Amino acid sequence: MSTVLDIINTRSSIRKYTDQPVPEDICRCLVEAGLKAPTAANKREIHISVVGKDHPVQAEIQKDLNPDAKTNFFYDAPVTLYLSADENFRWSALDAGIAVENIHLLAADLGLGSVIIGIVDGVLNGEKKAEYAAKLGFPEGYRYEIAIAFGYPDTTKEPHAIDFDKDVTIL
Length: 171
Ligand SMILES: Cc1cc2nc3c(=O)[nH]c(=O)nc-3n(C[C@H](O)[C@H](O)[C@H](O)COP(=O)(O)O)c2cc1C
Known about the structure:
Elements: H1 4-10, H2 24-35, E1 47-52, H3 56-65, E2 79-86, H4 92-109, E3 113-117, H5 121-124, H6 129-135, E4 142-151, H7 164-167
The structure holds flavin mononucleotide.
């Protein structure tokens, strides 16, 4: 059985997926992992929209981001989760970040690959913000915070290096 430390030490962002669909119960497990994350003041303000790769909203976002892009911004992953949260709550972005990392780590533990998707922020919080909020089923007063795409990995990637001496100060 893997430990959280094993997963932290071996995980990487995955940007190539097989066509194998992700079973519904696995998707549900990942969504629940996001919702079980801690939130400031136990506000539990995170909402998750589950979107399959063939849903038309995926193509619309892709087109609005860059109609000429050669690569798919979701890497053709079978499923993308959009995390939205109360736009007036001070900690929404941080809470969404914690929730998405829960999902990323559990995905790795379940043999899936995933990649956090921030690049869509300009589109989802831009001039079509209200339209996309409705299309993605965000609750009233919620805004996109972060997304994560996942599926079965069709590639491997080495974990990134860390520079302890540069990035850590011990007093
Ligand atoms: C807030 C955030 C937004 C990100 N947005 C994207 C994105 O839009 N597209 C992408 O390919 N990777 C995205 N990533 C993944 C990072 O590029 C990745 O974590 C980084 O390159 C380190 O690679 P590793 O996760 O494999 O260690 C994002 C990561 C974070 C934390």
